[in-house]
Every structure is written in structure tokens, then in C-alpha cells.
Amino acid sequence: MEANGIITRMDDGAKFIQWGNQEIAIECFLSNPAICEEQKAKVRKAIEPKPMPLAPISAPRYRIFYLVEGKERQSAWLYDESNARKGLAMMQAKYGKKNAVIYVD
Question: Which residue in 27, 47, 70, 92 has its CB near the most CB atoms, within 10 A?
């Protein structure tokens, strides 16, 4: 006889597997010495939790912070490092080398 892979979960959290024409609790199925290891391995694989997908990795964003008359200002978000470097050079030329920096998020 072979387990058909249908796993039923009850409201109380108990799990059952279809074995022929009867349902058997997973714990009883895995502890039964009469069932071969291949069948037990299939059931273990079916009930093991699936790994959580990872969050997508986003590209870095750049922003230029600069001082104008002692007040901090900032540029819009830039998504290209070369554009951020050009913007930094412009702000440093306009407001001074020490008054502009690139922020990477």
C-alpha cells in the first residue's frame, strides 16, 4: 500500500494522510515500523515547512545633501551613481566643497 500524498489538516492542527482507503495521523504513520523508509521520507518532505521567499534586493538610491545659508537642503532621489556624482560636483561648485555630500540609501 502507498500513501497518495493527500494531507488533510484539521481545525485543531492535527494532520492526517490518506493510506489506502483510511486516514492515518501523520505521527502514527511516521512511527509505524511496518511502513518503509521511502514512504516515510515522502511524507516528511510533504509536511516540512517551505522556505520563505527573500525580499527583493533594490538598487541603491542616491541623494545630495547641501547647505544653503546654513540650512540643509536635499536633491530628489537619483538612481544612477554617475548622475549623483555630476550633481555633487555642481553643488560643490555652487555652495563650496564642504557644503555638499552624497547620501546612499
Answer: 92
35-69, pLDDT tens digit by residue? 778 877 777 777 777 788 888 788 899 999 999 99
- Give the C-alpha separation, 58 to 16, whole Å: 42
**5 within 8 A of 44, measured Cβ to Cβ:** no
User: Within a domain: residue 56?
Assistant: no
Tally the domains of the chain: 2
Whole-prediction pTM value? Answer: 0.48
Domain hosting residue 72, numbered range: 62-104
Beta sheet of 22-25, edge-to-edge order:
3-9, 15-19, 22-25
Q: Which cell is 43 given? A: 511524507
